Amino acid sequence: MGRVDVDILIVGAGFAGAATAYHLARAGRSGILILDREATPGVHSSGRNAAIVRQHVEDAAVEPLMAEGAAVLRDGSLATFERRGLMLLGHSGTDVRTYFPRARGTGRWCPNDGTVDVAGLLATYLADQRVAFNTKVRAWEQVDDAIHVTTDKGTLACNILVNAAGAWAGRIGDLDLIPMNRHLFVTTTLDWVRPDAPCVWNTDGGLYFRPESDGLLLSCCDETPDLPGHYREDPNVLDTLARKLKKLQPGLGDLAVRSSWVGQRTFAGDRRFVIGFDPRCNGVFHVAGLGGHGVTSSWAVGRLAADLINGKQDPLAAPFAPDRLLTEVIADRHNEQELAKLGTT
Ligand SMILES: Cc1cc2nc3c(=O)[nH]c(=O)nc-3n(C[C@H](O)[C@H](O)[C@H](O)COP(=O)(O)OP(=O)(O)OC[C@H]3O[C@@H](n4cnc5c(N)ncnc54)[C@H](O)[C@@H]3O)c2cc1C
């Protein structure tokens, strides 16, 4: 047996890594160390999102994790939760004007959804955790039963390496994951926006907005693949937002933007989370590809990841198993080889 410095080493102090560490500790695991390349938590996706807690999503495999996560966030014990409700526009149902007089459309009224204090939530998950900030993981390798992790501060040996590196999770875990840039815009003060107004989501046209700092926070649901950590603002996205507003929500009028930023939502090809042990390497576990749902689902994702690390089975886990990505890679390689044999590549 070689040396082991920590039992569980987690790469990433965003919602994926923090919530996993939180649940591991609740389950009685000790010897957990989180490493993050940045000086503070929330520099990347976990601090660049819209903070909306939305439990109804298109994917039936993801929805139970959203419902479980939202139910816990709603009770407000982890962080301040505003139960403002959310209108999912795009099909017949409730008229949005009941809740947001200047908006237009009908859809599903979700009274229990809302917004959460994301910085507070992340701080709750990280409280009592050992976190080494300013520490970048460069590489890892399996040595006998341990994983040796090389960082810019030295090497550490662990029994389990948790890859929760967000946009970098593909690189850390050799997985096919794509970071997609999305812009968020905050308007100047709008005296007609009630601070407790609901979130409104045009699922058909790709547009959402909610109250923020005396104005509105908006997104036109853009997604552009980019390299991890590249947050280039694209001026064309503001034009897209203006066009969508005019078409879908003309009642909001002309809006002036006070601030904007870009964040990255990281996806597997099938847009499902990647949660589970890596079949290629004993002791490597992924919590990645949380896309646009990592705040709402964080409690449940951390709970599921901790359960699996602790050897508990959970039927919810099957759709998220990393094996599926590796099967695709193997199939692609096989197809390429077959095509090469036929001389078609
Ligand atoms: C614009 C936008 C809007 C969103 N809106 C919502 C929303 O309203 N509701 C919702 O539920 N979700 C939303 N999301 C999704 C949510 O923010 C993400 O799913 C979630 O934050 C992902 O968390 P993470 O821990 O996987 O990634 P991150 O928060 O990016 O954390 C990964 C961490 O790993 C660290 N790291 C990376 N590489 C290394 C390395 N080599 N060594 C050490 N550390 C490393 C990084 O520094 C980072 O801190 C939104 C996302 C975006 C971008």
Short description:
This protein has helices at 15-26, 63-74, 118-126, 169-173, 235-248, 298-309, 323-341; strands spanning 6-11, 32-35, 52-53, 81-82, 86-95, 106-110, 114-116, 131-132, 137-143, 146-151, 154-163, 177-187, 199-202, 207-212, 215-219, 224-225, 257-268, 274-277, 284-288. The protein has seven helices and 19 strands.
Please characterize this protein's 3D structure.
With 345 residues, this protein is an alpha+beta fold. It has 2 domains: 1-80 and 117-176 and 269-345, FAD/NAD(P)-binding domain; 84-112 and 179-264, 2-Layer Sandwich (D-Amino Acid Oxidase, Chain A, domain 2), CATH 3.30.9.10. Helix content is 24%, strand content 31%. The chain contains 7 helices and 19 strands. It has helices at 15-26, 63-74, 118-126, 169-173, 235-248, 298-309, 323-341; strands at 6-11, 32-35, 52-53, 81-82, 86-95, 106-110, 114-116, 131-132, 137-143, 146-151, 154-163, 177-187, 199-202, 207-212, 215-219, 224-225, 257-268, 274-277, 284-288. Strands 1, 2, 8, 9, 10, 11, 18 and 19 form an 8-stranded mixed β-sheet that branches. Strands 5, 6, 12, 13, 14, 15, 16 and 17 form an 8-stranded mixed β-sheet that branches. It has a 3-stranded antiparallel β-sheet with strand order 3-7-4. Helix 1 (15-26) crosses helix 6 and helix 2 (63-74) crosses helix 6 (298-309). The longest helix has 19 residues, at 323-341. It is globular, with a radius of gyration of 21 Å. It starts with 5 loop residues before the first strand and ends with a helix. The mean pLDDT is 95. Flavin-adenine dinucleotide binds at residues 11-17, 35-38, 43-46, 48-52, 136-137, 164-168, 172, 182, 184, 263-265, 290-296. Flavin-adenine dinucleotide (FAD) is lined by residues 11-17, 35-38, 43-46, 48-52, 136-137, 164-168, 172, 182, 184, 263-265, 290-296.
